[in-house]
Amino acid sequence: MKSNRNASGPVCAGPSRLALATGVLGLLGAAAFPATAADGIRAQILARGLEHPWALAFIDQGRMLVTERPGRLRLVAPDGTVGAPIAGVPAVDAGGQGGLHDVVTDSGFAANRTIYLCYAEEGPGGNSTALASARLSADGRRLEQVKVLFSQRPKVRSSAHFGCRVVEASDGSLYLTLGDRYSRKEDAQTLDNHLGKIVRINKDGSVPPDNPFAGAGKPAGALPEIWSYGHRNSQGAALGPGGKLWMHEHGPQGGDEINRAEAGKNYGWPVITYGENYGGGKIGAGITAKAGMEQPLHYWTPSIAPSGMAFLKSDRYGKAWQGSLLVGSLKFDYLARLELRDGKVVREEKLLQDLGQRIRDVRMGPDGLLYILTDERRGQLIRLQPAP
To answer: May I ask which residue range the UniProt record assigns to the signal sequence (predicted)?
Structure first.
């Protein structure tokens, strides 16, 4: 059986256990709770009552966009007021792990007001992960010029493993993480489908000509959108040092991985893994290494069910934290701060353990501070305040 604290199964979250009663949308949370082992850093609640929020993006004037898994996109004001659902969101197939997932703003948002949404899309044969672009209206109340840029193939009847993190590369192309849909894990090793892959596309949905399987001499049947393969279910991705794509992915029972996803490389799932089947027992041959398959930069056993990923580029929390990699844990309710040296994880610090909530997303804001979302029935948007 899969734990309901792990994103590998449908979530049955109870009421928030943070000791601030309300849950009314739009109330500003001025109270703060101490962050465990964080030298005075405080968790300040900005908004609460969000229904299973999944991702946040910063727009203008201190405002943020927040997705809710059931299919709503909301605008949160600097004072924590949560607006009504924004109109024009594409049809979302919400159920189990599926729904409205990631939201990111275009690098040129100030001029073009473009955002990107990742979500579960229904269609012939089941559902799959889709990516759409849209323009946020000047008043922030609706989406305009909505265009589906990509739909994962094939569609599968499954409510699990959508992946669905979006990252804009330094050259303006878009990376999108795609899950193996749980029931189709072997497809992560073949290149004629999008299951268990990361794809890279242009902002108009076209394929960059320098993708690893786009040019002459590619393997027969390989889809040109594919950037890397052999992934299970990635719910965190970010640009790291040198503009390289970093991502993490859920293992099954153990074996959650952090990888640096590079063009054309095979990350092994389900042939190699540091996890095992739910309830015990080896996966495949039970091996952890094989020629031609990449080893993770870091892995967790037991699984922490990672979600959200951000590099801290500011010094707002002191020089010791600058350059850290932040990852949320859904299963154990903490924020991991990972110290890196020469591209390797050398130390992990567990923060916010007193919060008692599933951490779904973490982002660094334009103010250099960290913001997190908690994936609960009455989820919260929280800012980490540094020590005065």
So the answer is: 1-37
